[in-house]
Every structure is written in structure tokens, then in C-alpha cells.
């Protein structure tokens, strides 16, 4: 297990009710499961996360399965929902 920070942007921030929170997980999938299972998180947060892309310490996750993406100790996961405009 690694400990780090998850940062939420735009719609993810609004749906989470916070800009950032800690993670304690070995993989991106485990961190997202924990985040979406927190008390007070509803369906909107789960929908936003499902549509989001992710950066880990600035590197894009891309289409890799989230179960295969290991999280680093002290890392930062950025949750980026789709943005409108240019």
C-alpha cells in the first residue's frame, strides 16, 4: 500500500465536495474504489470519476487498466473530468 494525495478538478471537485484527499492504496483502481465508496459520495461523483482521465505525478494513465496502475508512495493522482471549451 502507498500513501499519497488525490486531487480533484472541476466537476470532480464539485461532486467530491473537496479539492483533495489522501489515498492509501496499491493501485489506481483501489484508490478510486475507496474514493467512490466514502460516506456522502453519491452517484454523480461515481459518474464523473467514470468519465475522467488521470495523471499520476504528471504522467497520463491513458487507457491502461486501472488495476495495473501501481501508485507510488507520496504520489499525486489528478482526477480530470472532461472539460468543455478550448
UniProtKB/TrEMBL annotation:
Signal peptide: none annotated. It comes from the Bacteria. InterPro entries: Beta-grasp_dom_sf, Mopterin_synth/thiamin_S_b, ThiS/MoaD-like. SUPFAM superfamilies: MoaD/ThiS. Gene3D superfamilies: 3.10.20.30. Pfam families: ThiS (PF02597). This is MoaD/ThiS family protein. It comes from Actinomadura livida.
Amino acid at each position: 500500500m502507498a500513501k499519497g494525495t488525490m486531487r480533484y478538478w472541476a466537476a470532480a471537485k464539485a461532486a467530491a465536495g473537496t479539492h483533495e484527499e489522501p489515498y492509501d492504496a496499491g493501485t489506481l483502481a483501489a484508490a478510486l474504489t475507496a474514493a467512490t465508496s466514502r460516506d456522502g459520495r453519491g452517484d454523480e461523483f461515481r459518474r464523473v470519476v467514470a468519465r475522467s482521465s488521470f495523471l499520476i505525478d504528471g504522467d497520463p494513465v491513458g487507457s491502461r487498466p486501472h488495476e495495473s496502475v501501481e501508485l507510488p508512495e507520496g504520489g499525486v493522482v489528478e482526477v480530470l473530468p472532461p472539460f468543455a471549451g478550448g
